[in-house]
Amino acid sequence: MKLITIGAVMLFCISCHGAHSNSNNGKDKIDRKAVVSRHDVHLTEVDTLGSLTVGNGKFAYTVDVTGLQSFPVAYANGVPLGTQSEWGWHSFPNDKHLTFKETLDTFNFNGNHPALYSVQKKTGRGKLASDYFRANPQRIQLGNIGLVLLKKDGSQATLLDIKDINQTLNLWTGIITSQFKLEGTPVEVITCADSSKDAIGFQIKSALLKTGSIKVRFRYPTPMTSFADKAVNYANYAGNTTSLSQKDGQAIFLRKIDTTQYNVIAAWKGQAAVTQKGQNDFLLVPDTNQATFACTVDFSLVIIPL
């Protein structure tokens, strides 16, 4: 798998947006960049209803004030920190062999034209079928990718420890620049999405990298059958598994949720290694000889031959 550098991803974002000319053979005097840029989003404090998103119309990745998905639980009741794609769907096993036909009832609204309608039944297999087909298939959260920030005493920082927030979504380039301080030390994170692939790129700049106080966490939540999936269902589910393989500059996470399979491929510049914390919980730990760390993450569906 070819390494995609952060510079390449960001250049692609910029060039794609920059392809729209500010003039039409000298006749159009509208400064399009100025018109768009005056609506740039700027945050200076935590707002769980103010999550920002990068994407391309078919893929979306939503971030908190750190520029990544570092505090998904804190944002769960606001605008959740989700990662979704058009192809990201899943169905839980239909162990009882329920059929859609069992959800149907006949109604005759016009007196002589009986028709079948799917309804929410209240008892028996009809209820089981109604519940199952209401909830399945459901969109899946492809993964949380966020920062683990360690304080000087070794404890993990919370959202309350994030100070001097200065975050901007540049609507012309589609790039999010997030600046903040942890115990007085500046951190800058630049985040963007590829315009044609289901991929993000990010770059972290901070002296905290040299002290081992910044790590990147990959977590893969289990899908929900409720109305809202807030991307924080970390409860163990036997059907939700992750297999890791890695080599220099790259980690491949093979994701399986029952019969749904997809890959998450992280590629980075410099030295780093991935360690596993739990069933679907991993840490990407950059080497401490660098104050800048850049990484791309590509999500892709695994096609299973019939």
| N- to C-terminal distance | 25 Å
Number of helices in the DSSP assignment: 3
Do you know the CATH topology of the largest domain?
A: Beta-galactosidase, Chain A, domain 5
**Count of domain modules:** 2
Number of strands: 20
Order of helices and strands: HHEEEEEEEHEEEEEEEEEEEEE
CATH class term of the largest domain: Mainly Beta
Characterize the largest beta sheet: strand count, sense, and whether it forms a barrel: 9 strands, antiparallel
CATH architecture of the largest domain: Distorted Sandwich
What percentage of residues falls in helices of 4 or more residues?
10-25%
Structural class: mainly beta
The fraction of residues assigned to DSSP E strands is: 35-45%
The global form is: globular
Strand order of the largest sheet: 1-10-11-12-13-20-17-16-15
Rg computed from alpha carbons, rounded to a whole number of angstroms? 23 Å
Low-pLDDT runs of 5+ residues are 16-21
**Roughly what is the average pLDDT, rounded to an integer?**
91
Q: CATH H-level name of the largest domain... which superfamily?
A: putative glycoside hydrolase family protein from bacillus halodurans
